[in-house]
Design brief:
With 75 residues, the chain is an alpha+beta fold. The protein is built from 2 helices and 2 strands; from the N terminus they run ααββ. It has one domain.
């Protein structure tokens, strides 16, 4: 089997160059995460619909109760 046949054969597998790049990109993003299990919570900005009023995410936490944030939609 020559190189051209080998490269054409790879197109029919999950080990394509875009697939490998995507996997490596995901791994790099995972390594660069600043939030870790058991560590401090992320306290990012929350912007109201007016686009002006800003809150911090942890401003919505009450006492020692855990704050649960659900990202989703109803369609």
């Amino acid at each position: 089997m020559n190189v051209v046949d080998y490269l054409c054969c790879l197109q029919d597998t999950v080990f394509t160059l875009p697939s490998i790049r995507s996997t490596l990109h995901s791994l790099i993003l995972d390594v660069r995460k600043t939030v870790r299990a058991g560590g401090p919570a992320f306290n990012g900005d929350v912007v109201e619909l007016d686009g002006v009023t800003r809150w911090r995410l942890l401003d919505f936490q009450r006492g020692s109760r855990p704050l649960v944030v659900v990202f989703g939609s109803c369609t």
